[in-house]
Design brief:
The chain contains three helices and two strands. By secondary structure, the chain is α+β, with helices and mostly antiparallel strands.
Length: about 60
């Protein structure tokens, strides 16, 4: 829940990305979610500042 609330403050698009990335864990939704994630932008540039919209895979494993 903490992760959800943290993302919720960042905007609706980030919430949608979290849901899509969650669907990738279920076999039934993998194909659909993968196609949708490929259509969505990974980076967003506002006023010359580029930021990543999607979390990197295996980012929790690095310590």
């Amino acid at each position: 829940m903490e992760k959800y609330c943290k993302v919720k403050k960042r905007g609706l698009q980030d919430i949608e990305l979290i849901y899509l990335e969650g669907y990738l864990k279920f076999a039934n939704y993998q194909k659909i979610a993968a196609e949708l994630l490929n259509l969505l932008p990974v980076y967003e540039t506002i006023n010359g500042v580029t930021r990543r919209l999607r979390s990197r895979k295996n980012s929790k494993q690095r310590k």
